[in-house]
Design a protein that fits this description.
The chain is mostly beta strands. It has 3 helices and 11 strands.
């Protein structure tokens, strides 16, 4: 643990390349009940959310050592060039600030953090609906989607559930997405079986935790 600004600094996860393996076999999917329920909007106090382009991570408040004027504040930076990726949560009780900083992450990685999923969550368990997959999730570890820096500042006693939900709300609103975690039954394979009518094929099903990314945009007809 590293002391920073009279508070405690916790490095939660390092950025990792996440490869995606395309399957040539279509996988039937059956929806299961939603695992995560969004907190009601009325629960939150007003949050200022700014979006800028082309700046470096040094524009984030945690680097500048400044305290935001607003008790609830968030900033999203669309980076021109990716840097080392990491996430950090710093709580400073003396100034009543809890600051969550996500540095140089692809969009789906920010969502992984917001949903409490591990940084090495398999990208082949991310389902994209209504949008080209390559725009949200890389199909090749050598091909990157745009990278962002995100920072959220809230009062020091804010619970983890609330600040993660705030991140999720910010991302969904700005990128016009609905993203959640669900358990789905998927086909893992098949095996031959003998019946009275001859040989048949039996499907092998299994439940998997999936991240669903669905666009809110309406495609013009």
């Amino acid at each position: 643990m590293q002391k920073t600004c009279n508070g405690d600094s916790y490095v939660l996860a390092s950025g990792e390349d996440m490869s995606f393996v395309l399957s040539e076999i279509p996988v039937p999917i059956i929806k299961k009940p939603v695992m995560i329920t969004d907190l009601p909007e009325r629960y939150f106090k007003e949050l200022r959310f700014d979006v800028v382009k082309g700046l470096s991570p040094k524009s984030l408040q945690y680097v500048m050592g400044e305290r935001p004027i607003q008790p609830y504040y968030s900033l999203l930076i669309d980076l021109l060039e990716a840097t080392e990726s990491f996430s950090m949560v710093v709580r400073n009780d003396s100034t009543d600030v809890l600051r969550i900083s996500l540095i140089s992450m692809e969009l789906y990685e920010i969502y992984l953090f917001a949903l409490g999923l591990p940084a090495d969550f398999p990208t082949n368990r991310i389902l994209v609906l209504g949008e080209e997959r390559e725009k949200l999730v890389p199909n090749d570890k050598l091909v990157k989607t745009p990278c962002y820096c995100y920072e959220l500042s809230v009062p020091a006693k804010t619970e983890r559930e609330e600040y993660r939900q705030r991140i999720l709300n910010d991302m969904n609103k700005h990128f016009q997405l609905d993203v959640r975690v669900e358990k789905l039954a998927v086909v893992q394979g098949s095996r031959p079986v003998l019946t009275n009518d001859g040989e048949s094929v039996e499907l092998i099903w299994d439940e998997q935790l999936m991240m669903i990314m669905k666009t809110r945009k309406v495609n013009p007809s």
